[in-house]
Amino acid sequence: MSLAPASPLASPLLAGALFVLSSSLLTTYTTTSFLSHPGVRGSSLPAPGAKSPLSPPSPLSPLSSPLSSLGRPLLITLYRYAGSLLLSLLSLSPRASPARLSGTLPPLFVPALSLFGANLFNNFSLAEMGISNTYTTKCLIPVLTLLLSLLAPSSDPLPPFPALLSLLPVSLGVFLSSSTSPSFSRRGFLFALLSCLGQVSLNVSSKRAMRLSSLLPAGPIGGLECQLNLVLLGLLFALLKAAHSLVSQAPPAPRPPPPPSLGAAAAAAYHVEYSLSFLYLSLVSPLTFSVTDAVRRLAIILAGQAFFPGKEARLGKENAAGMLLALGGVLSYSFFSRAKGQ
C-alpha cells in the first residue's frame, strides 16, 4: 500500500495506535453488541450463550425473514464481508477491474478461506463464552504454529530454544484462565481453537500468496487491494455457507435479527480495523507487529470488561493471572523468535 509521504498515517506509532484502538473499541463493541442483541422485541442483552425469551411471532414479524434463520456468527460475517467489499471498491475503483481481479484472486483463494474460517469460528466462540475466554485462548496461535511445523516440516527453521520455552507459559496461562472462568464453554473453546487454526493457515498461506503475487504481470498486490480480494472471496464463502444452512440443515431457532444499522456499524469497524492492520504491517517489522497484536488482545479483553460488565464475567485473580501469563508468553515468543531472524 502506498501512502503520500506527508500522510500522517505513514507514522508507525499513529498507525499502530489506531489499529489497537479500532480493534479494541470499535470492533469489540459492535461485534459483541450484534452477537448479543435480542432483536426488535428484546429490551435487555443476554449473557454469552444465554437464550433470549421470545414471544410467538406475528405474521409480519422479522422472524419470517431468512436472516432470522441464520445464526448470529454467520450473519455478522456476511455483514462484515459485504460492507468491507463495498468500502474497498469505493477506495480502489481505478484498480478493481475484472481483468486485474482475475489475476489476483487465484493466489489468495486459500488465505481467503483461512480468513473466513478464522472469522466465523471466532464469532462462534464469542457467542459461546465471551470476549475474555476467546481472546485468551487465541494466545495459543504460536503453539499451534509450532505443532503444524512439526507435523508438516518445511524449509523454515524452528524457533530458537528460548522461544520454544516461552510457549510453556502460554499453554499454562490459557489453562489457568479457562479453568477458573465461570463462563468457560467446551464448545466455545473448540471454536476458538478452530479460529486459531484458521489464523495459522492464513499466516502460512498468505506469505506464499504474497510471493506468488510478485510474479503477476500487473505487479504485486497492495494492502488495500489484498483486503478487497480477501473479502470478495470471503463473501462468496459466507454466501455458500448461508445457502447450505438454509437448505441442507435444520436452521437454528428463529431469532429476530439486529437492526441493519448495527450490522453496518460492525462492517465499518471490521473494514477500518483490517485496513489499519495491513497499513501497520507494511510500516513495521514482524516483531513489532506481533508485540502490538499481543497488546491488542489485552486491550480487547479490558474493553469487553468495560463495555459489557453485565455480560462479561468479572475477572478473578486466577483468571487475570492466567491471561497475563499467556500474553507474556506470546510477547516472549515474539521477541526470541525474531531475535534470530525467524
Automatic annotation (TrEMBL):
Residues 45-65 are annotated as: Disordered. It is a multi-pass membrane protein. Residues 71-334 form the Sugar phosphate transporter domain. InterPro entries: Sugar_P_trans_dom (IPR004853), TPT_transporter (IPR050186). It is found in: Membrane. Keywords: Membrane, Transmembrane, Transmembrane helix. PANTHER family: SOLUTE CARRIER FAMILY 35. This is Sugar phosphate transporter domain-containing protein. It comes from Tetraparma gracilis.
